[in-house]
């Protein structure tokens, strides 16, 4: 199978470490999808436009899982975006709110919000590290 322009070519020594990171990011993305799906019905009932944003977030996470599984570097970029948006969404809904909505600090979501925040932080950090490594590798080849 020929390597395309977006495929990832890694040295043999770093393949095991990359697979561990891939597994961790895929697991965190899958956990985020599950947590967001659990809270999705409440979002549509409270604010349908925000519910649509959550659906987009879930779709982006699923596509990132697929692309990372196919060793496509665009999956890492999408995973990084999902992680950053997850953190940003959590912070905004608990501080300034989004689109002048009432902050959901006291919402009866239990521990789901903080776990989504933790997963999003992990996704952003790990995907960012892989992207940095990929960019650095591209510069070394030039």
What does this structure look like?
The chain has 142 residues and is mainly alpha-helical. It has one domain. 76% of the residues lie in helices and 0% in strands. The protein is built from five helices and no strands. It has helices at residues 12-38, 40-46, 48-69, 73-94, 112-141. The radius of gyration is 17 Å and the shape is elongated. It starts with 11 loop residues before the first helix and ends with a helix.
Question: Which helices and strands, and how do they pair?
Answer:
Layout: H1 12-38, H2 40-46, H3 48-69, H4 73-94, H5 112-141
Helix pairs in contact: 1-3, 1-5, 2-3, 3-4, 4-5
Summarize this entry quickly.
It contains five helices and no strands. With 142 residues, the chain is mainly alpha-helical.
Described by strand count, sense and barrel closure, the largest sheet is: none
Number of helices: 5
> Mean pLDDT, nearest integer?
80
Judged by helices, strands and strand pairing, the structural class is mainly alpha
Q: Detail the poorly predicted runs.
A: none
The domain count comes to 1
**Alpha-carbon distance between the two ends:** 24 Å
Q: Whole-number radius of gyration?
A: 17 Å
The percentage of residues in β strands lies in under 5%
Q: Note the overall shape.
A: elongated
